[in-house]
Amino acid sequence: MNLINEFTTIPKLLRNVVETIHPESHPFLLEKSGQSWKEISYKTALENADALSSYFLEIGIQKGDRLALLIENSPEYVYYDQGLQQIGAINVSIYPTLSESEIEYILNDSGSRCILVGSPFLFKKILKIANNCPELERIIPSFDDYEKHCKGISINAGVISFSDLLTEGKRTVSGYKAQIDATREAIMRSDVSSLIYTSGTTGIPKGVMLTHANFVENVKVCLEQIPVIEKTDLFLSFLPLSHVFERTATYYVCCAQGCQIAFAESLELLARNMAEVRPTVMNVVPRLLERIHDKAIKNATANGGIKADIFNWAMQTGKAYRESKESGKKPGILLNIKHNLADRLVFSKIKEKTGGRLKFMISGGAALPKNIGEFFGNLGIIILEGFGLTETSPVMSVTEFDRQVYGTVGRVIPGIEVGIQDVETKEFVSIQTHHTFDPELITGEGEIIVRGHCVMKGYWNKPQETELVIDKDGWFHTGDIGRFYQGNLQITDRIKNMLVNAFGKNIYPTPVENTYLKSQRIEQIFLVGDKRDYITAIVAPSKEALQETFGLKEEFFQRSEMFIDEPEIIDWIGQDIKRLSAELAKFERIKHFKVKRNPFTIEDGEITPTLKAKRKVIENKYSDVINEMYEQEEAVD
């Protein structure tokens, strides 16, 4: 049932659910409380949203004002978002992992008047910068014992706990109810719903203005392309709601379709939470799937013997069964018998660790390596892939549920145009829509550009930067390189990531890095080689694999030396690099590498909150090490 019409806005989604799908008493949100999961009804969620709206109106918040959130995924995020959206205010969600200076910049650039803060750790960050943010009027910690953190600190903004705010709002809500309802009805789809600040791999973060229409249309067409999402589904949410992917593809999809949302306690407890709530749908990032893949293979094959033989046989059987179905053929009787046995012996045990009810997972945020998608397909776990940017709300393409093309990011969604434009000549290689889909289409590469309902309104207070990415014909230039393959969009890399070696060969780092990341010994890899004779790399090994192989203690990883120089470890990494290099063209192969003691981190400013490498930062920070690799004579291969 599609409840989205031309008048729908974000605050109307939940109202549509309680009017047409579920009674108010039906559970909407789930959160862990002690040892059990607590259900929160639509009635509670809507009452709390109204209470927040009432409080905001009482303190003078008006349509168009910006209200910030610095909080982990939780029911409080939903109440706050719904409360501000229905009075026309704008959601400014901030990544909890950002530094104090980055948070300060976003608060001042957006002119946020209030901020919801999720934990004592985050609250302390805000206390340090609050007086540098002159427009900040209210700080709202989500916990009650915040006073102990304020001792000896003078703050210009007022501080009120979330629970006290709710109490105040409920006290005055009857007087503001008519105004809340009228304001909600008056919100235009063209009004800005949210400012989401880009990660800033190459410069100062920019506030992406996304409208109610951007979000609502994105949800609508995704539900059309994935029609198997039903009101009985339960999503487990662990990716940050401060990121557009999780907010659109979990939170707002569930608001539109009447699905339940369970909030995971943390990434560390995700496996336990999956077994407890038994989700039917999850949005994930490729790295999580890679870790599940690595762990499953390791657990099954580490000790060899009959267990490893059964696992390998089952995976071959799963591959044959998958390929038979994907080719349109009906698996034969013998293959069906073998597949049922493989499912009982192997596949069902892996599926049970996810709760045993997953219909599918949607992977986004980065390209999923083809071998990882095929691995899950062999298990019978459907992985759908999507592609988009913050500036595109985010989805531009997503896999159809009944048609897998591994190594691609799906079919163009309805209502938009996606073009491939030659980077140098600016001529169109191809323009495709949902309706021109051709499963035989294969095009050349170029920059991916898009035009239609998913494109942002622009960058907040930055008209010149907006003009740089949205041309006069309305095409948004993504900066990504890709092509159409079997009708689906396929991503190669970012234009700014492209390396051109000294001999003029173009090298896209991401697919090369993904080849080396097939190694269970490698956690991260960063390619270098622009304007150089050959490729080198900085490699961060898997800490778990290092500890198991060499018996290393925690002290080893706490040493001050940034790079590992033990020959046996370097040789151990080099074995896999040499083996995997055979899958690449000679000019793409790593000739020298350095082994970094610890991974690149957000805290060190080396990667973004969406785990993309800040290329210039890393190259500048490790320039001495990089130059040293180009002075070596011996090579890996």
TrEMBL record:
<protein>
    <submittedName>
        <fullName>AMP-binding protein</fullName>
    </submittedName>
</protein>
<dbReference type="InterPro" id="IPR000873">
    <property type="entry name" value="AMP-dep_synth/lig_dom"/>
</dbReference>
<dbReference type="GO" id="GO:0016020">
    <property type="term" value="C:membrane"/>
</dbReference>
<keyword id="KW-0547">Nucleotide-binding</keyword>
<dbReference type="GO" id="GO:0004467">
    <property type="term" value="F:long-chain fatty acid-CoA ligase activity"/>
</dbReference>
<dbReference type="InterPro" id="IPR020845">
    <property type="entry name" value="AMP-binding_CS"/>
</dbReference>
<dbReference type="Pfam" id="PF00501">
    <property type="entry name" value="AMP-binding"/>
</dbReference>
<dbReference type="InterPro" id="IPR042099">
    <property type="entry name" value="ANL_N_sf"/>
</dbReference>
<feature type="domain" description="AMP-dependent synthetase/ligase">
    <location>
        <begin position="31"/>
        <end position="460"/>
    </location>
</feature>
<dbReference type="GO" id="GO:0005524">
    <property type="term" value="F:ATP binding"/>
</dbReference>
<dbReference type="Pfam" id="PF23562">
    <property type="entry name" value="AMP-binding_C_3"/>
</dbReference>
<keyword id="KW-0067">ATP-binding</keyword>
